[in-house]
Backbone:
């Protein structure tokens, strides 16, 4: 079923959307993912405390998803995206002064609002419009692949800046020296987020009319979305995949605690694994064609299941660098393949374009709950069971969610096949 409102957008717009889509998460997420051992040290945090910060973020984000999605159906995405980038960048100035844990909780709650309420639904809506009726897989694949490239590039630049401003070797540098060097990483990241907001405001094209403004009330929009069966399956697919994405937060910590890499080497692991994301997403975008994206998601869950099982059994240990890199690549490949496409199947699931923002909001309320529960649980196991055992427990959780996501994906494939058969019968009769 084609939506006449879908038409191909400009290359400049998707480029700015890609930059925005990842830069906005650099401060609350990417820095802690790449520099996790350093981040814990300079802010004097335990794994559980860091997980609790992400939980605060996720709680506020959860409250922002639905109405933020509705907002994106009523206003120009570019204005919402630019505003969210400006507000998020200001939070980086607070992070750079190394505030107390209490202030960090407030800051992460603030970021939960700025990165979701004005941004998330607008980004997905803009990507869907850009992709046109026949290129949803390519649009979302290139979007997430491009976001991955931005994250990896920012990570590499961050590691470079951190290393440059360390006056001594990483092993002999004092805590004060590490904090001073890491402050430059934070400030650079904040500047890039703010600069991108200016570019979006002045150069991203307007791609939405206000025609949907009075079409539905907020409540009727939400009720209509909840009646769509595919919406519930996409929720389960995203929540399962997002647990896998949350586990990527600990790759650098695994390198440090289990493989005994130093802080710079561990940060490089966190940065280098991000380069898998654009590679996988671009390959998926090129292979996916114009339909049946759900089968690539099924492949992703199978791959994620295999890789997480290897880690869960404790096979990856000290002095097994090749096995470590190989297993990491397997898990990351599955995770990023699913992320590249899980919003592209909205078209297969027969979700109307005019309800995109609301649907994204409703789906995200459930799909991104790992922002609330995953990080604290991961932090608890890593603190409670130091070394490889804690990591095994974390990957065991990922095994369970991989199975759940796989089952939901198979169910979605069966549902869309039924849709196609019904439409074929209708067309044949006509």
Residues:
């Amino acid at each position: 079923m084609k939506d006449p409102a879908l038409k191909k957008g400009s290359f400049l717009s998707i480029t700015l959307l890609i930059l925005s889509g990842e830069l906005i998460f650099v401060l609350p997420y990417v820095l802690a993912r790449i520099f996790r051992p350093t981040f814990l040290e300079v802010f004097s945090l335990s794994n559980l405390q860091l997980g609790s910060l992400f939980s605060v973020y996720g709680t506020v984000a959860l409250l922002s998803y639905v109405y933020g999605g509705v907002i994106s159906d009523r206003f120009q995405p570019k204005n919402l995206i630019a505003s969210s980038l400006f507000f998020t960048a200001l939070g980086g100035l607070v992070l750079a002064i190394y505030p107390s844990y209490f202030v960090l909780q407030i800051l992460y709650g603030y970021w939960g609002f700025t990165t979701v309420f004005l941004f998330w639904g607008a980004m997905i809506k803009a990507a869907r419009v850009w992709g046109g009726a026949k290129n949803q897989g390519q649009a979302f694949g290139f979007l997430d692949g491009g976001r991955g490239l931005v994250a990896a590039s920012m990570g590499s630049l961050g590691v470079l800046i951190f290393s440059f401003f360390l006056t001594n070797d990483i092993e002999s540098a004092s805590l004060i020296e590490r904090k001073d060097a890491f402050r430059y990483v934070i400030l650079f990241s904040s500047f890039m987020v703010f600069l991108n907001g200016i570019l979006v405001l002045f150069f991203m094209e307007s791609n939405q009319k206000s025609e949907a403004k009075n079409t539905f009330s907020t409540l009727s929009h939400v009720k209509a979305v909840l009646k769509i069966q595919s919406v519930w399956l996409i929720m389960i697919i995203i929540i399962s995949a997002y647990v896998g994405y949350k586990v990527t937060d600990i790759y650098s910590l695994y390198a440090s605690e289990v493989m005994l890499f130093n802080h710079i080497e561990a940060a490089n692991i966190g940065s280098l694994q991000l380069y898998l994301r654009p590679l996988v997403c671009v390959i998926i975008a090129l292979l996916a064609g114009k339909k049946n994206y759900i089968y690539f998601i099924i492949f992703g869950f199978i791959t994620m299941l295999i890789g997480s099982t290897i880690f869960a059994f404790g096979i990856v240990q000290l002095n097994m660098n090749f096995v470590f890199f190989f297993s990491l690549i397997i898990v990351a490949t599955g995770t990023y393949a699913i992320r590249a496409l899980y919003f592209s199947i909205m078209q297969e699931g027969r979700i109307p374009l005019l309800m995109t923002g609301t649907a994204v909001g409703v789906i995200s309320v459930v799909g991104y709950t790992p922002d609330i529960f995953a990080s604290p649980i991961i932090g608890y196991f890593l603190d409670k069971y130091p070394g490889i055992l804690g990591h095994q427990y974390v990957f065991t959780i990922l095994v369970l969610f991989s199975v759940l996501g796989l089952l939901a994906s198979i169910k979605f494939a069966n549902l869309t096949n039924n849709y196609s058969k019904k439409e074929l019968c209708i067309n044949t009769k006509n």
About this structure: Confidence is low (pLDDT under 50) at residues 1-8, 209-216. DSSP finds 18 helices and no strands in the chain. The chain has one domain: 11-204+218-425. The CA atoms of residues 84 and 379 lie 29 Å apart.
